[in-house]
Every structure is written in C-alpha cells, then in structure tokens.
Design a protein that fits this description.
Blueprint lengths: L2 H14 L12 H7 L4 H13 L3 E4 L3 E4 L6 E4 L2 H8 L4 H6 L2 H6 L6 E11 L2 H7 L6 E11 L8 E7 H4 L16 H7 L5 E11 L3 H7 L7 E10 L4 E10 L3 E4 L8
Parallel strand pairs: 3-10
Antiparallel strand pairs: 1-2, 4-5, 5-6, 6-9, 7-8, 8-9
Helix pairs in contact: 1-3, 2-3
Length: 261
C-alpha cells in the first residue's frame, strides 16, 4: 500500500473511532508530516483523499478540520415503485412520508423544503427528450430539501413538465401546494397519467463553484448527476428531472431481480 494511503487510512480510522472529533482542527501539515515520518507532498495527497470522501474540510487560510457527518442518502431504483404504490392511498397516509423521507430515514418534521416554480421554454435537449417542438412551454420546478439540523440540501433537483399537459389541473401550477402528498406520481395521477417506466442515466463530474457552495461540498468531492426520464403507459415522456447529488454522502443502490431458470 502506498505511503499516502497508509496515512489516509490511519486518519480515517481515527475519525471513525471518534478519536478525531467533528469540528476538531488537525495539526498543521508540517507537524502531521513529521508525525507520520513523510514529506508534506505525500501528506497532502493523503488529506486530499479524505477531503474527497467528505471526512475532512480544508479551509484556505484556516486549516484542516474534521467534518461533522451529514445525513447519508440511500437512493434505490426501487423508490419509484414505492412511490407508485402510494398514489391511490389515502391523503393522510401520503402526507406522512415522501421519497426524501424514504431515502434518508427521516420524518417529515425533520425536513425543510424550498421549492420554486417557473415557466420556461424547451431548448433542443429537453424538446428532444419530450418529443415536442423547441420553444414548447414547460413548467420548471426546483427542489432543495435539507435536514433541519443541517444547512446543505440533499440534492439540487430541476424537474420539467409540459405546461399545457399539467395545466389540466391548475393546482399543479402552484408551488404553494408543495410538498405535494404522494409526490410527482400522484400529481400526474390527478390528470390521468400513470407512469410505466423510469429511466435514470447516471454520470459523475466535478461540481461548479456554485454547486459546491450550494451542496456544501469539500474540495475534491465529486458530483453525481442523474437524468431521470419518466414515461407513461402511452409511451409519452411525462417528466424529466435533472438531479445533482453530493458524492460524499449519497449511495446509489441498484437491485436487479433475475428470472429464474
């Protein structure tokens, strides 16, 4: 094992065992390098690994600090069927929990919601996915949900619906009705749309400065990007979502059930 990985593992164990506490400032780089009998470049490489994992926060001019663990999100592909199963259940049941609660294990009272709606026009990308002309009116919905005990949201979500389709139920055009009991699948249900399949295309990239600030990402932490395409039982795309998730506290779980011989 390379020396920088040995150092990273030693610090990682200290953090996970609680010997290095959240918010604690680590010794200066030269002192840490001396402790581990290595050079500063090797030590910095070890710290970069821990920063990318979200275990430490390197603040320019202030030092390196152990990060306070944030709530982890387990996002499974089974969440979509879970949401569909709830669409026709009583409102009181739908009010108790939604997809975010499902993914985080939190209660709705633990969450803070920030939701904005606006009209936009389909550019070439979204027009091609929806199968509509460029310039078609869309309803763009922006979601930022965070644990009340934390300042950063779990994800940055931009959801798109064809405006003239959802206008069949004026309630769907009003952000004041959010968070909607039962989520998007129930919203579509109110206008007679049943989803048949959900396709999620997953990529990863470095975050922009704006994204890193919004999600509270440390240096070196990657962004997970999901393009979610929801298709109804008539083969039409009903919703497109672009979801940006923090790579240091999101786990994507894909379970594939195989047909038995």
């Amino acid at each position: 094992m390379p020396r920088y990985e040995q150092i990273a593992e030693a610090l990682r164990r200290g953090i996970r065992a609680g010997r290095l506490r959240p918010g604690e400032r680590l010794p200066a780089e030269d002192r840490l390098a001396a402790r581990y009998r290595t050079g500063v470049p090797t030590l910095r490489r070890a710290l970069s690994e821990l920063a990318a994992e979200g275990l430490i926060d390197q603040r320019h001019g202030a030092g390196t600090f152990v990060r306070t663990p944030r709530r982890r999100v387990e996002r499974s592909n089974e969440r979509h069927q879970w949401e569909k199963d709830r669409v026709r259940r009583p409102r009181a049941e739908r009010l108790r929990t939604g997809a975010t609660e499902h993914d985080t294990g939190l209660d709705v009272t633990d969450l803070a919601f920030r939701i904005e709606y606006r009209e936009t026009k389909a550019g070439e990308d979204l027009a091609a996915v929806f199968g509509v002309p460029v310039g078609t009116r869309l309803l763009e919905r922006m979601y930022r949900t965070n644990c009340r005990a934390e300042d950063a949201p779990f994800a940055l979500v931009h959801s798109y619906l064809v405006h003239d389709v959802v206008a069949a139920d004026p309630e769907l055009l009003d952000a004041a009705n959010e968070p909607w009991p039962g989520g998007t699948q129930h919203q579509l249900y109110t206008i007679g749309i049943e989803l048949d399949r959900v396709e999620e295309r997953v990529t990863a990239r470095p975050p922009t400065a704006e994204e890193a600030g919004a999600l509270g990402l440390g240096e070196g932490v990657s962004l997970i990007v999901i393009r979610k395409i929801c298709t109804d039982t008539d083969g039409r795309v009903a919703e497109v979502s672009d979801v940006r998730l923090p790579g240091d506290r999101t786990e994507l779980i894909f379970t594939t059930y195989l047909t038995r011989w």
